[in-house]
Amino acid sequence: MPHAPVGNASPATMEARDAAQNPEAHWDAQGDAWVLRLSGDWLGSSGTFPERPETDAASVRVDATALGAWDATLASRLWSQLQPLAQREVPVDLQGLPEGLREIVSLALNGTPPLAAAPAANPRGRVARLGARTAAWWVEKRKALTFFGEVLLSVGRWMRGRSDMRASDLLWQIEQTGPRSLPIVALVSFLVGLIVAYMGAAQLQRFGAQTYIADLVTVGVVREVAALLVGIVLAGRVGAAFAAQIGSMRANEEVDALATMGVNPVDFLVLPRVLALLIVGPMLTAFGALVGMAVGWLVAVGIYGVTPLEYVYSSFQALTLPHVLVGLIKGTVYSMLVALAGCLQGLSAGRSAQAVGDATTASVVQAIVWIVVAASALTVVFQRLDF
């Protein structure tokens, strides 16, 4: 039954009042920006959101001046609408929301305050976006530098005997990262060593210089290839595991629990992993170099007719101390970068399953990029030093 008018309110006035309480949401375009307008009472699962505009927006603003009653469900639905935009680094202005709702949505969007949107018709919108991206880039770099500093402080506490790291954790990480990595390191070193030996020998045969196969394989594998292969294998196998383990602990609030109990998370979680790769990195590099040299022996002796003793003698003649030290130094540096990248991404991960997966992927990519940059820099430095 229709409600009777109250007081002097006419039926038309009552219908307009009831319509004003219905939850509504729609997107409006203002220049190169978009505005999400909310009105009515948003309680429970009432109301639906329209599809987001597919076109790129310079900025997004939420206008809730006509918003009535609301509850936490609206915050969740707003997050689902705005999170994809925030991930694309589109500035989102939440100033139009009520204070309580604004704080909830702001915390959900990566735990950072909302970025103010540029004016709708501002011709400097692209410059503002560039500035926002630059600021976000600097925040990430500062986070990495802060993490490196915390690791150095943790090493200092460990050397003074005041660290929260347990010896059992270090031994466990050594066992997980060292012996368990030998099969994949052996396989990759065998295959890549076979490629290096075969391709190098094919070129040397054109000049009748098969006896130099040992020199080519020994110097190339010991000085460069073995360390690079070990770094890439560890990035995929160990670095990803570090990020997933620590990221899962962060999602389950175990990292926060450690800090609450007075245990330094860097000492307890990061330091054992960094020291473990510092120890096993050069060992795996030496193992990979031996496998590569053995494959070179098989190719030279079995295919190109080099005598076994001649290959061994030429290998020992080419295997000088500087080549060995350069290979071990590079393998150690690459292993350290893998550990740092995995732990950094794990501690920086969000508190969801998707965030942990993203952190795992980012750790592998970041470790490989760091390894390539370090390889280029170290090669130039050692060559300039004639080492």
What does this structure look like?
The chain is an alpha/beta fold and 387 residues long. The chain folds into 2 domains: 98 residues, Transcription Regulator spoIIAA (2-Layer Sandwich); 236 residues, no CATH class. It is 67% helix and 8% strand. It is built from 12 helices and 4 strands; from the N terminus they run H-E-E-E-H-E-H-H-H-H-H-H-H-H-H-H. A 4-stranded mixed beta sheet has the order 1-2-3-4. Strand 1 and strand 2 form a beta hairpin. Helix 7 runs parallel beside helix 11. The radius of gyration is 30 Å and the shape is elongated. The protein starts with 10 loop residues before the first helix and ends with a helix. The N terminus is likely disordered.
Task: Characterize the quaternary organization of these chains.
Answer: single chain
In N-to-C order, the SSE pattern is: HEEEHEHHHHHHHHHH
Q: Which class of secondary structure composition applies to the elements?
A: alpha/beta
In total, how many beta strands? 4
Instruction: Please give the alpha-carbon distance between the first and last residues.
Output: 94 Å
Count of discrete structural domains: 2
Sequence stretches where pLDDT stays below 50 over 5 or more residues: 1-17, 112-123
